[in-house]
Design goal:
40% helix, 150 residues
Length: 150
């Protein structure tokens, strides 16, 4: 049985799509059975990943060209075993909308020695590379501590 992991950020065009493809790739390499989706607390629908997000994941052999943003929905909230937010405000908004998520909500940055993972939107490509590296450290640490299912 796979774990269902939902990664959430503000618009679902920068951080959460990067984390989604990183988690999927790392799980494949570690032979872990997970399903990963990403979503927006802002509610953006059908927007492509930011061009810098696409470029910096391409540099490491990953692909976001087919990504399209989606909002967090009641169905996604129910589907997820874990919901990984980037900022405290993401968790707060989700708790307010979906009180039953309390035990599923985690801050992804906490797995990499951080509190929040800052939004690179509006920054240069270098800022997106820094975010990619932060997300990689955090997603790998999260997956490594996830109990193996029998």
């Amino acid at each position: 049985m796979a774990y269902n992991i939902l990664v959430v950020c503000t618009g679902n065009i920068c951080r959460s799509p990067i984390a989604e493809v990183q988690l999927r790739d790392y799980a494949l390499r570690r032979q872990r059975d997970i399903q990963v989706k990403s979503a927006s607390v802002l509610g953006l629908v059908n927007k492509p990943a930011h061009r810098h997000a696409q470029a910096v994941v391409k540099e490491v052999g990953l692909d976001l060209s087919q990504h399209r943003s989606q909002p967090v929905t009641p169905e996604l909230a129910e589907w997820a075993d874990y919901v990984l937010g980037m900022e405290i405000q993401h968790s707060s908004k989700l708790r307010a909308r979906y009180p039953h998520l309390e035990d599923k909500l985690l801050l992804l940055g906490s797995f990499g020695g951080m509190v929040e993972i800052q939004d690179p939107l509006g920054g240069w490509r270098r800022r997106f590379r820094i975010t990619r590296e932060e997300l990689q450290r955090c997603t790998q640490a999260f997956l490594d501590q996830l109990p193996r299912q029998t």
